């Protein structure tokens, strides 16, 4: 039978709580599918700063490299907010992305019919929204050269938005592949009327497009995309863009659904390796209370089954179970209209497991 | 009596139509206020490419420099979309901003009670929204060094996001001044957890903040701001940010109102000089039909009266007239629920003039 090794990084805040439930769900998958998972725990973020003196310990990287996929809870918290950059939780996150070559960040944003009430947008605008933002994750402004220096007239600071052709090519191919499995509509977002990097981006997209004649391609400027996502989100299916634009647009797209506590993400390397994590943060304010919504982490585990292990059936089973539980009216506090009736982290996961 | 010289740049598409009506409104202001305006016409954008072989003719710059303010319609259109960069309309726009030192872009986004129906957001979320995005307009990625070169492994392209301390300082001061005249709440948006330029930005904001103890300051990350603008826009009053983030967030904020055909903007230099233009584009598809909404351009003229000429009373009179006309149910096609009853460009402007 198939066996997979998963590096589990609970992280900070509510991370450990939601991770625990996702692991429970994975154990059910073991039984149902006759596969076996071995879970290797390691530290990333604030907990690693406290224990190991660095947000990304060598041991964590080594475990991750030996494993088939990584499942991450969340990192960060006020405790580390005023640390210097090299001792901040997000530095660990950026580091692991770069070190493991996780260049393709897949961020689905979907609206379940039973959830339209939690969105800030009108029902007719968001009902049926189902889009996928694909963000380049290891290039651009995030990893270009940074400079900071003094002049006679004060300080200067700069960041470089730089892309190599091959970096654009691999993310764009991924995007076409993903679009092909969805509605075959791809929107490439750039700022080609201003940025040189965007002009190269658009050129590469246009060069690759003929290899995917079945996918309908559209170029859109980032400012226009930020508007159109609000005006009529259903016009979008798959969206691909560079790192910084993707950071902004994927969060904007998430919020259209009103329930970021339910949204998963995948960060993929070449081949089958990937890191999976919920879109939400470590929510220090509710950590340890057992009330965090585990759905996003459980759906991240489902993405792992699909993209890293090829267990499409098991992935669908989890997703279907989540839909059924939500359809039946079960809600955690973040998405409940009646907070009194909200269930806790464990109860939510148990319901999902029961529905599988 | 006071007299002011205004450089008028009708531009392309619907630009000339909406400009004509804004000029008509200004002529009414002349009478009502006993001031005199002299209107000097010049070319910018596509029309200048066609007539003068450049999107920003020297004559236009000279006229603008001799005048007290600039009123712009809109530039651009499919005719010039495939031109090389130096022959594109937006290059003229970027050029005039830089040449005239228009570093402070003020982008109000407000929801009139009678217009809540046109927003994609729920009534309770957008009712009463009234925010001002202040975008740095002559620095950052737009004007940093651009590079493009070949390597053995293909092409590379880069743009530099660079800020000098004094550039940050002047826009931040403007923002505090504006916030002081509004609800005294300022949100400074950056990506200080990743970008060196954002860390300098935040440092400068924190250095200046004590000079404005009456203004409540908050720092927010750009991805979080993109979400929060949708979740609960009423938490924002004045928002200040760098050029590229401002391009994206100001357009996102505009679309919250659902009626970008009504939103004006100001781009200010040191002192009283400024360029005023509607937020919408040149809308080539409806150009020449006499159906474009002139409200955004008329409200841009009102901003000119306020910020460049100090004619606060006249600015208020225009704004009040616009509100009254919209309240009475008069609508152009872009914001009409019943398109049959929509009025044209001239009729809309005439109603506004009558209401003054
Ligand atoms: C924490 C931060 C560095 C990170 C990013 O900007 O990539 C986060 O916002 C994300 O989107 O995963
Ligand atoms: C046309 C374009 C260069 C311009 C910009 O990005 O600044 C426009 O989007 C704007 O916001 O005025």
UniProtKB/TrEMBL annotation, chains A, B:
- Give the record's pathway: Amino-acid biosynthesis; L-leucine biosynthesis; L-leucine from 3-methyl-2-oxobutanoate: step 3/4
Give GO terms: molecular function aspect only.
3-isopropylmalate dehydrogenase activity; magnesium ion binding; NAD binding
InterPro entries linked = IsoCit/isopropylmalate_DH_CS, IsoPropMal-DH-like_dom, Isopropylmalate_DH
The Isopropylmalate dehydrogenase-like domain extends over 5-352
Reactions mediated catalytically: (2R,3S)-3-isopropylmalate + NAD(+) = 4-methyl-2-oxopentanoate + CO2 + NADH
* UniProt keywords, alphabetically: Amino-acid biosynthesis, Branched-chain amino acid biosynthesis, Cytoplasm, Leucine biosynthesis, Magnesium, Manganese, Metal-binding, NAD, Oxidoreductase
Its main subcellular localisation, reduced to a broad class, is cytoplasm
The lineage's top-level taxon is: Bacteria
Q: Which SMART domains match?
A: Iso_dh (SM01329)
Q: How is the cofactor bound?
A: Binds 1 Mg(2+) or Mn(2+) ion per subunit.
Binding of NAD(+) occurs at 77-90, 281-293
Subcellular location(s) per record: Cytoplasm
Task: Give an example GO biological process.
Answer: L-leucine biosynthetic process
EC class, as a word, reads oxidoreductase
Q: Where is this site: Important for catalysis?
A: 142, 191
Residue positions annotated to bind substrate are 97, 107, 135, 223
Q: What is its EC number?
A: 1.1.1.85
| Co-factor(s) | Mn(2+); Mg(2+)
A single cellular component GO annotation: cytosol
* Residues that, per the record, bind Mg(2+): 223, 247, 251
Protein family (similarity comment): Belongs to the isocitrate and isopropylmalate dehydrogenases family. LeuB type 1 subfamily.
**Annotated function:** Catalyzes the oxidation of 3-carboxy-2-hydroxy-4-methylpentanoate (3-isopropylmalate) to 3-carboxy-4-methyl-2-oxopentanoate. The product decarboxylates to 4-methyl-2 oxopentanoate.
Q: How does it assemble?
A: Homodimer.
Question: Which protein, by its recorded name, is this?
Answer: 3-isopropylmalate dehydrogenase
Organism, by scientific name, is: Aneurinibacillus migulanus
Ranked from the top, the taxonomy reads: Bacteria, Bacillati, Bacillota, Bacilli, Bacillales
